[in-house]
Amino acid sequence: MFKRIDHIELVTGDEERAIRFYTEVLGFELRSRYEVPGLKLAYLDLGGTTIELMNFTETVPAPRPEGGERMGYRMMALEVDDMQAALSMLAQKGIECSWGPLTRPAYARAEIRDPDGNSIELRQWIQR
């Protein structure tokens, strides 16, 4: 019945800035762009995962609350082959960890944030 996650929606305040971050920093490919009344959409793909970037043109989304946890979706996670290499590449592009890295026997984990403050987990599986 259910096959896979089709896409993840992210609301951005600056569509071009978000597209640059996801394509130039994280390696997503821009698949398509559309405009409908009140909304600009961009679809970005990475390894079978699609992000739908949404930029509202007639309303201003409320900012993400600072600190603490909240109900609902928390973040997306990207699997990396080598945590240290990924963090080094990100640092060269001016992206620092917002949390971690932490290494456990089965995995290494760190978090970064996109330009809109959305958390992105980086996960390297050491043992499966």
Please give a structural write-up.
There is one protein chain. This protein has 128 residues and is α/β, with parallel strands linked by helices. The chain is built from two helices and eight strands; from the N terminus they run E-H-E-E-E-E-H-E-E-E. The chain has a four-stranded mixed sheet with strand order 1-4-3-2, covered by helices on one side. It has a four-stranded mixed sheet with strand order 5-8-7-6, with no helix packed on it. Strand 3 (39-46) and strand 4 (49-56) form a beta hairpin.
- Could you give the distance between the termini? 27 Å
* Whole-number total of structural domains: 2
Q: Quick one: how many beta strands?
A: 8
Question: Number of DSSP helices?
Answer: 2
How would you summarize what this structure contains?
It contains two helices and eight strands, in the order βαββββαβββ. By secondary structure, it is of the alpha/beta class.
Which SSEs are present, and which pair or pack?
Elements: E1 8-11, H1 15-25, E2 29-36, E3 39-46, E4 49-56, E5 76-79, H2 83-92, E6 99-103, E7 107-113, E8 119-125
Parallel strand pairs: 1-4, 5-8
Antiparallel strand pairs: 2-3, 3-4, 6-7, 7-8
Provide tags for this entry:
128 residues; alpha/beta; 2,3-Dihydroxybiphenyl 1,2-Dioxygenase, domain 1; 2 domains; 4-stranded mixed sheet; 8 strands; 16% helix
